């Protein structure tokens, strides 16, 4: 069931209070729940419907609440249009309508223009809306600057156009706003050198490229475990790309740095598998900062000699990642891992792992020597 709506019943118009009162006959409540109470203006009637459905009123019968919820799910056009045209529609009612009709562009357009619209409704639309909805939200730059969390929500919404994400990020950076997106530092540094496109009714080629890359990655990830196997080592120890990943790889190669960074944060495992190996440090680091990254991916990256030292340092300095013993072992066994991190993690190795490291030709002489010393410490005396 949806979250109960909090409201000040005393502050509601008298006609609304009368309908909500416990003494009101059930037939009258049922009529209002269906969106057809006489004497109520549209904004009042919609308020009653919302409160019957979400108000948590103890005296409201279950059948009335269920009827109201059904009405909310399919509001009659005269009711919703009339209510949204009124400046007196309560802010929390606007939020409920925004959540229920998040992908209805006609309704959303009226919501974002409403003088009483609360920022939590706008943020919800920015976070969950489809492409046309996010385009509507992104238009009001003054509101975005006053409430940077809306920019964050737009940027992290996969359905927001790439060009729009670039535009709102650039707006934030130019105005000195620091956003709470995972790889903000990398994204902010990259956007300085990007060409920012003006808003347009049609998606740009970059928008299409970003969407096609998502689709190509989804096709790979549809097969369990495929994302981590698209890069393999040949007989000479060089990494080669599986042919399944060629369409995705080609699209990623055609991306700007800013596009790659956003893909690193929002894309799926196959995209991250390719992008973590990108020669641009901003892109590779953004992969490790992705909120979607999984432990199995990090373990794979920690073992790879194709990723940069910067990436290995980020992994090694992340307390959550190094809770995993496999990640710790892979870092110590990777010759590209900064020596300070390898030395810090060596005491955590098991005896059999220390033996492997002590004999390994792939680790530095210093790591092998210290592995032997750790082995000596663990020998029974």
How would you describe this structure to a colleague?
By secondary structure, this protein is an all-alpha fold. Helix content is 59%, strand content 2%. It is built from 24 helices and two strands. A two-stranded antiparallel sheet has the order 1-2. A hairpin with a 5-residue loop joins strand 1 (231-233) and strand 2. It is elongated. The termini are far apart.
Percent strand equals under 5%
Give the overall silhouette.
elongated
Gyration radius (Cα, Å) is 28 Å
Would you list the SSEs in sequence order as H and E? HHHHHHHHHHHHHHEEHHHHHHHHHH
How widely separated are the two ends?
64 Å
The helix tally amounts to 24
In spatial order, strands of the major sheet run 1-2
Q: Are there runs of 5+ residues with pLDDT below 50, and where?
A: none
Main sheet properties: 2 strands, antiparallel
Question: What is the oligomeric state here?
Answer: single chain
Residues in helix, %: 55-70%
On the 0 to 100 scale, the average pLDDT is 93
User: Number of DSSP strands?
Assistant: 2
Structural class: mainly alpha
